[in-house]
Amino acid sequence: MPKETLVIIPTYNEANNISELIGQVFNQDENIDLLIVDDGSPDGTADLVKEAQNKFGERLHLIERSGKLGLGTAYVEGFKYGLEQGYSYICEMDADFSHNPDDLPELIAKVKSGNADVAVGSRYAKGISIINWPLSRLILSYSANLYARFITGLPIFDTTAGFKCIHRKVLEGISVDKIRSNGYAFQIELHFRAWQAGFTLKEVAIIFREREEGVSKMSKSIVWEAIWRVWTLKIQSIFGTL
Ligand SMILES: Nc1nc2c(ncn2[C@@H]2O[C@H](COP(=O)(O)OP(=O)(O)O[C@H]3O[C@H](CO)[C@@H](O)[C@H](O)[C@@H]3O)[C@@H](O)[C@H]2O)c(=O)[nH]1
Fold first, then answer.
1. Mutational test site, ligand 1, from 94, 208, 212, max ligand atoms within 8 Å of CB
2. Domain edges within the chain
3. Glycosyltransferase 2-like domain spans which residues (predicted)?
C-alpha cells in the first residue's frame, strides 16, 4: 500500500519536548508517519523515542546517528529514507514546539491539492509572526532572510523556514545528495534548488513560538555558512553548475 505522509524531525537534546510532540503530531491525521533523526543526544532523546515506539508501532521510525552531524545531513538522510519507503509527501519540522503541529494539515493539503510543490510554513508571509524571540534574534533572522532573498531572487519571504511539506517529486527532481549546506543555510539551499528546478513554492502563514524547553543550536558557524553559501548557490546557478 502506498504510504502517504512522513514528517521528519531532527533532534539534538530534545528530551523535554519529544514525547509530547510525537503524540500531538500523530493526533493530526492517521495518514501521518514520523521519522526522528537523532544525533546521539546525550540527554537520552532516542530512548524516549524507542519508548514511544511501543505505543505507536510502525508509524514511528528512528534513525540514530553517532554524534552531532548537523541539521542538513540529518534531513538528507531523512529524505532518502522517505523516498525509499515510498512516501508521497515529506515534511520538515523542529522538535521544540516552535512549529505548531496543528499547522501540519494545512501545509500537507496545499501540496496534496496540487496548489504547491513545496508549502513553506512562513513567519514572514503576513508581516512578522514570531512570539518571544529576543529582538537580537529577530533582527538577525529578518535581515538574513532579506539578504538571502535579494541575492538568490527566491520568491518567498521566509527563506530559512524549517517547517514545510514537500512533494516527493521535488526531492527526486533535485537529487538531494547534491545539497552541501548543513546549518540553517540548508533550508535556503533546498528552496533554491527546488525553485531553480521549476517547482512551485508557496508560503502558508504560521505563528512561530520560541521554545520553552531546551536550547537553540544556532552558532556563529551556522550564521557564516548562510552568509557565504547564498553567493555560491547564485554563482553556481549562473554557470549552470548547481
Ligand atoms: N539531528 C540533529 N538535529 C539538530 C541538529 N541541530 C539542530 N537540530 C534540531 O533541529 C531543530 C531546529 O534546531 P534549533 O536549534 O531549535 O533551531 P532554532 O535556533 O530554533 O532555529 C529555527 O530557525 C532557523 C532559522 O530561521 C530555522 O532554519 C530552523 O529550522 C528553526 O526553525 C531542532 O529540532 C533541533 O533539535 C543536529 O546537528 N542534528
1. 94
2. 3-238
3. 7-172
Q: Which atom of ligand 1 is nearest to the CA of 12?
A: 36
207 grid coordinates:
505563528
Q: How far is CA 53 from CA 16, 22, 152, 219, in A?
A: 17, 10, 41, 32
Give the C-alpha separation, 65 to 220, whole Å: 23
3-state SS of 16-55 is CCHHHHHHHHHCCCCCEEEEEEECCCCCCHHHHHHHHHHH
Evaluate if pTM is beyond 0.95. yes
At position 125, the amino acid (one-letter code) is A
3-238 to CATH, choices 3.40.50.2300, 3.40.109.10, 3.90.550.10, 3.40.50.620: 3.90.550.10
In 3D, which of 174, 204, 189 has the Cα closest to residue 108? 204
pLDDT digits (tens, 9 = 90+) for 191-209: 999 999 999 999 999 999 9
Cell numbers describing residue 226: 548562510
Q: Locate the ligand 1 atom nearest the alpha carbon of residue 217 and give its number.
A: 15
Amino acid at the residue 140: L
pLDDT in tens, 212-232: 999 999 899 999 999 999 999
ipTM: 0.95
